[in-house]
Amino acid sequence: MAHRSLSLIGFLLLAFLVASCGDSGTSDTVGSDDPPVTNPEPEPEPEPEDPTCEAQAYESTFDAVQQIVFDRYGCVGCHSGEAPQGSLDLSPGVAYDNLVEVPSVGSDLARIYPGARERSSLWLKVYANVDPSVTSLSPMPPSGPVPTADELELLRLWILGGAPREGTVLGTEDLLPGCLADPTPISIKPLEPLPADEGVQFVMPGVDLVASSETEVCFATYYDFSEQVPGEFKSDDGSTFFYDGYEVRQDALSHHLIFFLGTRPDGTRIEPEDISGWTCAEGDLEGAACDPRDPGACGVGGYCRTPVRTSLACVGYQQEGDQAFFPAEEIAVQQAQSTHTLYPGTYREMPIRGIALWNSHSFNLTTEDHLLRGRINLRFAKERRFPQYSAGGFDTAFGIPRMLGGFAPPYSEDVLCERMILPQGARITGMSSHTHRHGKHFWYETPDGEHIYDSFIYNDPLNWFPEDPLAFDDPDPAQRTLTYCSLFRNGVDENGNPDPEDVTRASRIEYPLPFAPGANLGLCEPTQCVNEGRYDVSCDDGIANQKGDDAACDSSPGAGDGFCDACAITGGITTENEMFGAQVWYFIAEGFPTDARVEFPDSFGFGLTGLGGGGRPGAGED
């Protein structure tokens, strides 16, 4: 079976290769120091400036990409003039308009697709130097100097952050040898709706994100596509429609966006009257009560929805008096932009009208408030042979139960593995993974130990779709078993050196799991110091208070400079906590039982098939 790898090292190597042309040269510095100024009369001594700002100033992250990548490494020399290579002019002032969402020459991709490196031909041609199997496009560049790792990461983060023309993408301000404005919330270009005969679009009303905050929220909207979906894509009774692909685009301020369908305990769908508090969001009627079944209830630019409440995966969202329901996962993504085209002939089925539940694990690490928005396009399925199924994630509770008691003590690393047993006749059409920031390498391996998937960036995981589905027909379950693992590093670098900024910190876990009010599930008890030179000192105070004995970490007795804050990794929902989730998409080939589903014999999950679907057509995503 083919091997696919998407590593941070590969990313860093590749994006910088894009910056060079075979015959281009480089300079040793970016910009130059300001000339000295002589004052005729003494003036008050100015405040010291940030020395990094003396090298170069950048108007935006893209301006930095232009100057550091395109200009400094000679790309403009190849891509400019009356006949630029590939008809691509990267000259200052025109490069952005020639790159972002502009069709490439020789492919059906855009040169740069906001938020999606896998749909950006420029990125794929560069990545082909490391893994030629990722694209049939010719690798670029054929030779030339390679920029630094930080410069490559600058390019990757710019694409992942929506490829904005203006503003500072979070994280890029620390990568430059110069001066860049503080990060700002960036609104990605809205996703255009599909033509009426090709699909439908869901619009997520904006969610207010307070500056420097992290939260996980849920709210509901109502949709009715019964008049929009052509008859050929409806079920015989008209209650559902079929789709075979989706595209999601949201602002890059969310660790995940999950689109649920609400289901009553008896399996029927919830209705608008089952949830209270419908009010208008945005528009000139914001805050007014509304009827979700009335498309015009909130006027121009307004949306009828239920209150935005803190909720893990929309579990327990309903208020007193509301109908109890279970959120059934339909679509989920971990990136600002995600596109999934189902394997030819496979499809999903969705109610043609009903309640959509929006769940976002959102964060705003900037100093400005922002309104988070998102859109989802569903493409109608013309060919329908096999229902597509999904497994992982919610079926194993994302590994949280296995890590609640602590995993990988401070300043250590460990590997967590589980198995999945595919049903006989399964055809895997896609794979992905899910961890938080301590997850450094996630992989799947076959019974003979071959890696068929490797991903190294937790917030930009590899979504792998093999050219030919992986078949699992052997009657022996052992031969239909995949092992999936993740390496977790808790406060150590690749060489095992302590890193107090990367260790799990009790002071940075803002809230516990919401399932048990008053309990501290998801919080952690610090056991070691974060002070330099004191990392190996035990400072557990023996009390369940999410604090430790700071005095034990003092540089000298009574110094008062100690901080006991380092914890073992613990399962939970904040970015300081950890998750461990596999994700596979598959169908059952003809001639095999269609009622069998993936099994997880090692998981401590709760069997949340109502949450994850575990194989319901249309359940589960990235």
Reconstruct the topology from this structure.
Elements: E1 5-6, H1 8-17, E2 57-58, H2 61-71, H3 75-78, H4 95-99, H5 121-127, H6 149-160, E3 179-180, E4 199-209, E5 213-224, E6 240-250, E7 254-263, E8 279-281, E9 303-305, E10 309-310, E11 326-333, E12 337-341, E13 346-351, E14 353-364, E15 370-380, E16 386-387, E17 389-392, H7 400-403, E18 412-421, E19 426-435, E20 439-445, E21 451-455, E22 470-472, E23 481-490, E24 504-505, E25 528-529, E26 564-567, E27 580-588, H8 609-612
Parallel strand pairs: 1-21, 2-3, 13-16
Antiparallel strand pairs: 4-15, 5-10, 5-14, 6-12, 6-13, 6-15, 7-11, 7-14, 8-9, 17-27, 18-23, 19-22, 19-27, 20-21, 20-23, 24-26, 25-26
Walkthrough of the structure:
- This protein has 622 residues and is mostly beta strands.
- Helix content is 9%, strand content 27%.
- The two termini are 22 Å apart.
The DSSP helix count reads 8
Helical amount among residues, as a percent range? under 10%
Our Rg estimate from Cα atoms comes to: 26 Å
Number of strands: 27
Q: Could you list the spans in which at least 5 consecutive residues all have pLDDT below 50?
A: 1-52, 606-622
- Report the sheet with the most strands, covering strand number, pairing sense and barrel closure: 6 strands, mixed
Globular, elongated, flat, extended or rod-shaped: what is the shape? Answer: globular
